[in-house]
Amino acid sequence: MQQSQTHPAQSKPGSAPAAVEFRHVGKVYRQGWRRTLTAVHDVSLRIEPGEVFGLVGPNRAGKTTLVKMLLSLCRPTTGEVERLGRPISDRKTLAAVGYVHENHAFPRYLGAAELLAYYGALSRVPHEVLRDRVGPLLHRVGLADRSREPIARFSKGMVQRLGIAQALINEPQLLVLDEPAEGLDVEGRQLLRDVLVEVRKRGGSVLMISHLLPEVERVCDRLGVLVGGRLVHVGTVESLTKPAEGPARSLESALQDLYRAQQV
After folding, report:
1. The 78-83 sheet, strands edge to edge
2. Among 221, 214, 226, 225, which residue's Cα sits nearest to residue 238?
3. Distance CA 261, CA 76 (A)
4. Other residues' Cβ atoms within 10 Å of the Cβ of residue 146
């Protein structure tokens, strides 16, 4: 696996607990009595406090499986996963995590303000704090004038903006984003970039899955490339686009070459 130098915003390994750490993690799914599917194979990865880390790869590369293990939605078959310095079995740390899903399944009868209050309570945010936080957050994502309207009436872009707000209601130490720009217009994507800057400024970390490579290039300190369940590269964008040997190239071209090399 290729490695690049540590980004200046990162802590040196060992100086502070990692925001996320996978150690030799594998995940095997059973398909019937005799068949199995290896979704993740021997992945080791550390994301530092204050880092924005991108996870890219072709479809069915294992990205979502890694996120599911990180969020305690499934268990690793082998290896260990830590979240905010604690094993994923310690579910208390989930209260310090924000998550934006690619396809939200919010209760459609709730209004935007009700939804934020609900998720805030799940994250153990005190009621008096929620009371002061919901309004400004809805204003922040451009939904202040739709706070009481049922989510059923929202467009896809509006639901995605609401998803960003619900992920921030607990001021998370770790923000996990799965295709967060899906359905967002130009203004919405700028909002998302601003959110990442704010999370980093307060020392939080971000793990972002995205197929939108320009966004990855713009916001990520480092990225990891998954192919066929294996982590085949970890480094800065420049480590792929401006290699020590050979000409500079686009991120898309560099990733395509990397994918092809793994298929040989």
Report:
1. 35-47, 20-31, 78-83, 86-87
2. 221
3. 27
4. 18
Side-chain half-sphere CA neighbours of 111 within 13 A: 12
Amino acid at 116: L
Q: Which runs of consecutive H residues, i.e. helices, occur in the chain?
A: 63-70, 112-122, 127-140, 156-168, 186-201, 213-219, 237-241, 251-263
Under DSSP, is residue 169 helix (H, G, I), strand (E, B) or coil?
coil
Structural domain spans, the chain = 2-263
CATH 3.40.50.2000 fits 2-263, yes or no: no
pLDDT one digit per residue (tens) for the chain, 264 residues: 444 433 334 444 446 789 999 999 999 998 888 899 999 999 999 999 999 999 999 998 999 999 999 999 999 999 999 999 999 999 999 999 999 988 888 999 999 999 999 999 999 999 999 999 999 999 999 999 999 999 999 999 999 999 999 999 999 999 999 989 888 899 999 999 999 999 999 999 999 999 999 999 999 999 999 999 999 999 999 999 988 887 889 999 999 989 988 875
Contact 24, 82 (CB under 8 A): no
pTM of the entire structure?
A: 0.89
Q: How many CB atoms lie within 10 A of CB 253?
A: 12
